[in-house]
């Protein structure tokens, strides 16, 4: 008979459940990282709508190969690296970014990697995925946590932590739009990070979940990936098309393996995929392939992801303005940060006070700015103002 202790819920989805169960007509979700438009509604991009109309129905329910759709993968490489660098890059379609991380971490554990490091703080699922893949998990210094009001990367300790990782450890780096802090390394800092990873012979996994959301330009947001590519190091990139295409529930993603041995690495990942879920879903990758494969639809997409990113930037300015007015303190960090999230610096106690007033954010004080709009901004800031003022 089963006899199990209770399993703790995932914090992001638990918060979403609490939000959905809250009967308050004025409740606001700034928890899960899912884009909402200025009226608070989920967005279906117009390029996605057009692509759906173009996708034929006769083959839509067929199996994809275990490695996924080759054309989708080639277009994904092009987006990630600037062009399709076919020679020493091989790819496998994945169940969005999470599925790509799973394939990568499981593969690393199979080839003798023992330990994986992610930033402190990081997206909570990095730890769960690493442990689930059978790896030891630890963190490296990332943000200077002593000065959250003027956020910056603690590069000295970051590099020194990289230096002391055992050779053959794995390191998860977020390519852009760092979750949860909204703070990315500068171009010079990335150069130093790449160099350290080379020195320590680390297995690098780039988690590329927000391409387009950080700067508004998918090309600029791939700077870190392109630096790793030109360094000649072996590395893995896990791409998600959940946020930047608004295809959250479709689970569209890809892992690109950069290595002279990339084909064998992907073949080993195909074994893992076959023994886990067999092959990837098709509809989402059909959509992304149709958009990225059409000059016109790709232009629409670049514009639309730029607009989403711009709306978030506008909300950051307004939040800062309003909070500085109501609290009298500095909220400069809200506009210094980029991407979907703001690491507000609110304590757990202050977050709980906000929840009592039906404004939901993660316990860490992470606010999904994608959930803020002209209609709810005042209330969010009033509630935060009261929580920090008490
Ligand atoms: C988030 O961090 O809110 C998103 O990436 C959703 C998730 O899967 O956790």
From TrEMBL:
Gene Ontology molecular function: any one: L-aspartate:2-oxoglutarate aminotransferase activity
Enzyme class at the top of the EC tree: transferase
Named cofactor requirement(s): pyridoxal 5'-phosphate
Coiled coil: none
Highest taxon of the lineage: Eukaryota
Keywords from the UniProt entry: Aminotransferase, Pyridoxal phosphate, Transferase
Boundaries of every Aminotransferase class I/classII large domain copy: 27-384
CDD domains registered for this protein in UniProt: AAT_like (cd00609)
EC number: 2.6.1.1
Catalytic activity: L-aspartate + 2-oxoglutarate = oxaloacetate + L-glutamate
GO biological process annotation, one example: amino acid metabolic process
Quaternary structure annotation from Swiss-Prot or TrEMBL: Homodimer.
Family: Belongs to the class-I pyridoxal-phosphate-dependent aminotransferase family.
Additional comment: In eukaryotes there are cytoplasmic, mitochondrial and chloroplastic isozymes.
Classification via NCBIfam families: PRK09257.1
Name assigned to this protein: Aspartate aminotransferase
Species name: Triparma strigata
């Amino acid at each position: 008979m089963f006899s199990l202790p209770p399993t703790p819920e995932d914090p992001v989805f638990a918060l979403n459940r609490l939000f959905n169960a809250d009967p308050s007509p004025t409740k606001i979700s700034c928890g899960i990282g899912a884009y909402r438009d200025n009226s608070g509604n989920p967005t279906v991009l117009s390029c996605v709508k057009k692509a759906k109309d173009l996708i034929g129905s006769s083959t839509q329910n067929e199996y994809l190969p275990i490695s996924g759709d080759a054309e989708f993968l080639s277009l994904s490489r092009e987006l990630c690296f600037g062009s399709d660098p076919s020679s020493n890059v091989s790819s496998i379609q994945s169940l969005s970014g999470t599925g790509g991380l799973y394939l990568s971490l499981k593969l690393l554990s199979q080839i003798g990697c023992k330990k994986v490091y992610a930033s402190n703080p990081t997206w909570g699922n990095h730890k769960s995925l690493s442990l689930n893949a059978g790896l030891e998990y630890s963190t490296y210094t990332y943000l200077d946590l002593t000065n959250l009001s003027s956020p910056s990367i603690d590069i000295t300790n970051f590099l020194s932590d990289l230096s002391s990782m055992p050779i053959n450890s794995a390191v998860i780096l977020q390519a852009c739009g760092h979750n949860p802090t909204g703070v990315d390394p500068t171009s010079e800092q990335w150069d130093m990070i790449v160099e350290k990873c080379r020195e320590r012979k680390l297995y690098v996994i780039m988690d590329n979940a927000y391409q387009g959301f950080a700067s508004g330009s998918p090309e600029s947001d791939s700077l870190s990936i392109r630096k790793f590519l030109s360094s000649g190091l072996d590395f893995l990139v896990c791409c998600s098309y959940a946020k930047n295409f608004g295809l959250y529930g479709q689970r569209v993603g890809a892992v690109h393996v950069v290595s002279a041995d990339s084909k064998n690495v992907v073949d080993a990942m195909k074994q893992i995929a076959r023994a886990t879920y067999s092959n990837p879903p098709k509809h989402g990758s059909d959509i992304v392939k149709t958009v990225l494969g059409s000059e016109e639809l790709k232009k629409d997409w670049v514009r639309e992801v730029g607009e989403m990113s711009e709306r978030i930037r506008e909300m950051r300015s307004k939040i800062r303005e309003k909070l500085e007015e109501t609290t009298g303190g500095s909220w400069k960090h809200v506009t210094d940060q980029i991407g979907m999230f703001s690491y507000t610096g609110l304590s757990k106690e202050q977050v709980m006070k906000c929840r009592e007033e039906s404004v939901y954010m993660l316990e860490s004080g992470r606010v999904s700015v994608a959930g803020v709009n002209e209609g709810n901004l005042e209330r969010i800031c009033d509630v935060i103002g009261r929580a920090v003022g008490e």
